[in-house]
């Protein structure tokens, strides 16, 4: 792990090294630790997020069409997190870099016990920013693991990643407090720093690789094979159903964009394609003032009830009235056959009769 290199830099002092070299190690320590955390955390996040996308999101009819399982879509999280850490470290290094400084632990006498440390005037604010960012990222990964709780361990290992996140959060909170309490005791504070860095990295490596080693040597029984066969069949059927539902949704969206089934009449298409189930009741020789009433309560269940109450076909204005089951007529055919209908209602104020 990259962040483990910071353990070596922590134990440097001015007994065997120059002050300029110690200043460089002080400034390099935050970079090494932050870049190591960014690489390890983003890799685990990309792993659990990819497992979630392949299993849960792909089976969701609403999300499956927008899920892209590509290496580039997950590498961006690695570069994004590394960029955020690099920005914080760059600002820290340029504005208030850490420098090696030797201080007295006590000044009661002419002689004092001194200790050397990396310090700067605003170091506490940058340390708090980095630790807060790391805790928030770990909490977010815990939330993603919670969403992936139904995925089998063979695919996501979310249980082990949860253990990694919980242990890392504990060290990010407890270790800084212990270091602050023992700051004037260089031996104790250095020991706490080394143990915290080692424990976080060792725990991560243990939780990632030990389950794989155990799974590699696990003996597969007939029950395990049967269970995997059933799960494979269920996932295959779920993916098939998901594709069918997605195709239906795409078809429905395409029809809605064209205005089909939304109450608009296309004069060049059959009425059936527009899903307008209505009858035309008009007398021979009727003009644009003729009206035909259609009772909406008599519409068959297969008809679209969202059609407007008044529909214009040519110069004839129509309203809903009695229903005719023949919905395959074009507007021109419907007007030609209007003389065969039962009843014609004249416009209000008109002297025309049936």
TrEMBL record:
InterPro entries: GPCR3_GABA-B, GPCR_3_C. Residues 24-215 form the G-protein coupled receptors family 3 profile domain. Signal peptide: none annotated. Pfam families: 7tm_3 (PF00003). The chain crosses the membrane at residues 123-148, 160-183, 189-210. Residues 282-309, 329-354 are annotated as: Disordered. Residues 294-309 have a biased composition (Basic and acidic residues). Its main location: membrane. It is a multi-pass membrane protein. GO terms for cellular component: G protein-coupled receptor heterodimeric complex. Keywords: G-protein coupled receptor, Glycoprotein, Membrane, Receptor, Transducer, Transmembrane, Transmembrane helix. GO terms for molecular function: G protein-coupled GABA receptor activity. It is found in: Membrane. This is G-protein coupled receptors family 3 profile domain-containing protein.
